[in-house]
Design brief:
The chain is of the alpha+beta class. It is built from four helices and seven strands; from the N terminus they run H-H-H-E-E-E-E-E-H-E-E. The protein is 62% helix and 15% strand.
Length: 258
């Protein structure tokens, strides 16, 4: 039997190789476990990042909703103030309506008395525009019976009639009409200066008369006033500039004067 001699270096090399191989075989489960842990950690990190993103999005939504809620609260408070003011106005309106009802019950008799007074005044006043003024009073009486006209409109119309009557005392007017002259109806021209002078003149200028309010009758007017009456008629018709006129005015003792 022949013995072979193996160098010691070779023996060490083989031993080292065997040892490393053995170690590799023993560490393989550890490496696999570490790889599994790393994969699990990576997956967990992704989940954490997703959760963080989701939380951040939820926080932004919460802030946005909170701002909307704050705005709605301010808007609701403002609406509540408006509702409170409307309740106050409603109460005031209801009170005003009740007061209007009371005023309406009081003002209707007042207007009726005003119309009666206006009617009496027209009948006792200088008799110019008799039909027009009597019709105005009659229309007011008809108006008071109408249910489709507001009380405010009725009162306005009554006050308007009073204003018209008041204006008659401050202006000059000329208009055509007809009247009985010496037992015969003739076309005449009427001249009114406020409520102070009321004169008629026939179309040919041959006859003139002046109203005596104290005696409530027409009286003949002297021909000497013809020129002044003619000028006054032209002034009333705005055909001539206003000027000083000499017209008859009756005094309280019914004496004629100038």
């Amino acid at each position: 039997m022949r013995l072979v001699s193996i160098p010691s270096v070779l023996v060490l090399t083989l031993f080292s190789t065997a040892t490393v191989f053995a170690q590799d075989q023993s560490l393989e489960p550890v490496v696999d476990a570490a790889s599994t842990i790393n994969q699990s950690a990576k997956s967990s990190q992704l989940k954490v990042e997703d959760i963080a993103d989701s939380i951040q999005e939820r926080i932004q939504q919460y802030k946005q909703i909170s701002r909307q809620i704050d705005g709605l609260n301010v808007y609701t408070q403002q609406l509540q103030k408006q509702l409170d003011n409307q309740d106050i106005e409603k109460a005031e309106l209801n009170s005003s309506i009740d007061e209007v009802s009371v005023v309406e019950r009081q003002i209707t008799p007042l207007m009726l008395r005003m119309i009666d007074s206006l009617d009496a005044f027209v009948r006792l006043d200088v008799p110019f525009l008799p039909n027009e003024r009597k019709d105005r009073v009659a229309n007011l009486r008809d108006l008071m019976d109408r249910a489709d006209v507001d009380v405010s409109e009725k009162f306005r119309r009554v006050m308007e009639a009073y204003q018209i009557e008041a204006d008659y005392g401050r202006n000059i007017e000329a208009y055509n009409g007809a009247m009985d002259v010496d037992g015969q109806e003739q076309d005449v021209e009427f001249l009114r200066v406020g409520r102070t002078v009321f004169i008629y003149r026939t179309r040919d200028g041959g006859t003139m008369g002046v109203w005596n309010q104290q005696q409530r009758e027409w009286q003949p007017l002297d021909d000497s006033y013809g020129r002044d009456v003619q000028e006054a008629l032209r002034i009333a018709r705005k055909q001539l500039a206003p000027d000083l006129l000499m017209l008859p005015i009756f005094t309280v003792d019914s004496a004629a004067g100038e």
